[in-house]
Amino acid sequence: MKYIIVGLGNFGASLSQKLTAQGNEVIGIDTRMEKVDLYKEKISHTICMDATDEFTVSGLPLEDTDIVIVAIGEDQGANIMSTAIFKNMEVKRLISRAINPLHEKVLKAIGVDEIVHPEEETAERWSKKLCIKNVVDSFELNEHFSIVEAKVPREYVGQTIREIGFRSKFNLLVLTIMKQHEVKSRLGSNQTELNIQGLATPDQKLEVTDILVLYGSNKHLKDFLKFEKM
User: Which of 130, 153, 164, 168 has its CA 20 to 30 A from that of 40?
Assistant: First the structure.
């Protein structure tokens, strides 16, 4: 995967390094030369540039980039301007950092695909969401074990937990399954809610919209969630 990460503060730099360490190609961007120099040996590529300048941004390899993450946290105006420019450039997937609730509303109005809250979410958590297929969310118990919420890989839809062999084949534990259903909001629009089904049973059949809550080692989680026939 190829990423562009704008802003090499604590969150942006940490995420850039983790994604690079996992074999991805990352372009880390910051306006501060000291940040660019500090991480040039730890991130695939680092560039000192102003991501609020449309002409400069247009020179980046946007067509070859899978995900752009605007991680600017100190300057709300620069964050919004940079996000808007990447959105206008029609990048494949755009994620931006929200500094406060009003800022989040502005980012949603711009049309970003996902919003980051670094005060609540770690770079490790986001590296899993970005790098491991089907992961919706994750919680790290330590550096080796995690609990993740994940979509059901396509080849397992319609099978039971027993048939898939989570424990015997993948060494994973299914804690529960969350079922999605549509409800009407007070304003009359449709919203998706998740219902937790309680402890998973071996004969429970998986549906395409189910969210699995899995526990296991990071290696086994990655092996299971990346295994999907094309």
Answer: 130
